[in-house]
Amino acid sequence: MSGRTEPTTSALAQPLRAPSLGRAALYPGLFALGALVGVAGALVQPGWFPGGLLLALAAEAGLCVGAGRAVGRRGGAVAPAAGWALAVVLLTTSRPEGDFLFAAGSGSYLFLLGGIAVAVMCATLAPVRQPDGGAVRLGK
Question: Which of 14, 38, 69, 129 lies in disulfide reach of 87, CB 3.0 to 4.6 Å?
Fold first, then answer.
């Protein structure tokens, strides 16, 4: 043997651990903050088009990226994205009185589709869970 120690199990075979109490309490707060950003964006984007649309999408991207980096896990970016999506989808429904928040215009569709694309990109690019242990280089 070459003197190096072989790991007993693969990094993929490590059991998943429950998040810490602080991190578990942080996820619902990030979900609510994402919903708040979704409601604010829905109100801002038609008022100052196209600047409001860019501001609303930048706010969502900043929240998702910042939360993912602050938490250090992909769930940190997914929680506000899910809150944003739920709030915006609920705001798209019309009321029995005929009231609605989103008009059938290009700005509303860009906000909905652009926000979904931003949420998917941020959740995909967020940091992932790394296995415990020291850094390892293959072939050494």
Answer: 38
Scanning the structure block, which residue is given the tokens 């939360």? 67
The per-residue pLDDT for range 58-91, each reduced to its tens digit, is: 999 999 999 888 887 888 889 999 999 999 988 8
Helices and strands (DSSP H and E) totals, the chain:
4, 0
| DSSP structural state of residue 12 | G
Mean pLDDT by 10 residues, the chain (140 residues): 55 70 87 94 85 91 89 86 92 74 77 90 76 59
Q: What is the pTM of this model?
A: 0.74
* Burial of residue 119 (number of CB atoms within 10 Å: 0-12, 13-18, 19+): buried
d(C-alpha 87, C-alpha 108), whole Å: 14
Structure tokens at 35: 């919903």
Query: Which residue type occupies 116?
Result: I
Task: Identify residue 62 by its one-letter amino acid code.
Answer: G
Which structure tokens are listed for 139? 């072939």
Residue for token pair 């309490």? 25
Look-up of token digits 């915006």:
88
